[in-house]
Amino acid sequence: MSSVSEGIGATSKMIAAFLLQAQSGGAAGILGSPFVMMIIVMGIFYVMLILPQQRQRKKTQAMLQALKSGDKVITSSGIYGTVNGIDGDTIILKIADQVKIRIARSAIAQVEASEDAK
Asked: Does the residue 113 lie in any domain?
């Protein structure tokens, strides 16, 4: 019985050695490397998550820098109004007749399109 169990152990060792050698050679060995796979996954995350966020942030910053008096805007809290004045990082927003509020420039969510652009 012991010779049979030794034969099974030797056979499994040979199969394991063969599989390890087969995986380490050629192009399949390079793509199967955990380091290379980690680099590929990081590249996919960059292209699908980080790059679009950077583009959106640049677009928002450009919109906030282009604000001027008379622009109709919507704040991040949903208040509609017209820019009445700009004082650095704050904006004076006219939301009704004789009602003006001071808000942070970063609180502007979007600028409404004018009737000329429609």
From this structure: yes
pLDDT in tens, 9-43: 666 666 666 556 555 555 555 667 888 889 999 99
Alpha carbon 60 to its chain centroid, in Å, reads 15
Q: Is residue 36 part of a domain?
A: no
Across 13-22, 42-51, 54-63, least confident range = 13-22
| Alpha-carbon dihedral 62, 68, 72, 75, rounded to 10 degrees | 60
Q: Residue 109's domain is classified under what CATH number?
A: 2.30.30
DSSP β-bridge partners for residue 87: 90
Domain that holds residue 100: 69-118
